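anyone seen this seq b4? input:
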Amino acid sequence: MAIEKEKGLEGKKAKILLADDDVTVRSTVTTVLEMFGHTVITVADGVDLVAIVDDSYDVIILDINMPNMGGFETIKVLNSRQYDIPVLFLTGAGSMEYVMQAINLGGYDFLTKPIEDLDIFNVKIRRAIEKRSFILRERQYKNNLERDVQSKTQELEESNRLLLSYSHSLENATVQLMSSLQNAMEEKDFYTAGHTMRVTEYALMLGIAMDLPEKELVVLRRAAQFHDIGKLVIDLSCIQKPGKLSDEEWILIKKHPVVGANIIKPLGFMEREHFIIRHHHERLDGKGYPDGLMGDDLDKLTKILTVVDGYDAMTSKRNYRRNLNMEEALCELQLCSGSQYDGETVDVFSRAVQDFVLTFDVSL
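predicted toks r here
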């Protein structure tokens, strides 16, 4: 068998499925294949073949002209099942039309009957076996690759989950630390004690009344919690001073939004809070500080904070003026609506705070 040795195709024994309606042909081809060490299963037509075929076969040999279901009809069924088993057509009538049709249907090769050259016959069978081996190795490689990718993806998802959990823990710890600093600052000033807590509650009440999504409420809560954190580095003696502040003292006080924003700036997860804290003393007419922003330069959350911060400042006790009651403060907000405060925000807040007080009174 010189051709076989030259090609290096000797070795693997295969399981072969043969379909031919001629008993003599089936017997002859089976004898030859078994002589080369292969296992052969035979059927009389395509119907019987498709009934027993599975992924365990290495090669399929099909007669083209068979009753019930011919070779071309059979390969169409095999193609639909995607076994990827090489199909060799066995025929005694070799026409170009058959060749083209077989190629178009995915046939691997042709075997002529009667078998005259055993070497060529064996080489074609061996090549089909090698083709099947390559297909199976490629399939196994893809399966292993998919498993590896799935495993690595799960590992990455788990790492991301742990990283996200750590990030959230770090964020929470940072927020708690800053809250402690904020509380320590307010304890130094009798007049502003509780201001941050009330502003935060008002802001969330207004945010809910304006149907803000949960993510927006989180940003609003944090911005409200830390809107005055810049006062940590300001001499509070001027805040506690009886009477009105001097121009120099006002300049100092007006620095706290910028100072607070600079404290927040290194915290990447509070980028939006940074903007709100810096601009919670801006006005719609551009006469606020520190940047003189106006109108649509201010986002919805900043407009909310300016309203609730202003309301709490009006209703809180100060050493240089009396605090306003709810009706007086809401009236003042309406008077400044459109110039200092956003009109729609003021309207929603007025309804929300009055509903809250009414509910509270009824519950008592």
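Strands lie at 15-19, 39-43, 59-63, 87-91, 109-112. Residues 118-187 form the longest helix (70 residues). kinda curious what u guys think
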